[in-house]
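Revision sheet: structure tokens.
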Amino acid sequence: MFIAVGHVMRLKTVIALGVIMALWAGIYQSVIAALALPISLSHISAPENISPLTATAVTM
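Predicted:
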């Protein structure tokens, strides 16, 4: 009985860790993309325009 409960809890922990890792990877990639966008546009627009919205507005 206790072994089964422990096994289910371990399985849930592994699944939860997997979900957290996947979410973290997604957040990490989106943050990297958000940071990389203004950097790639900075040579076109002025360095003051750090945010992607102003950078795209300047390039348009």
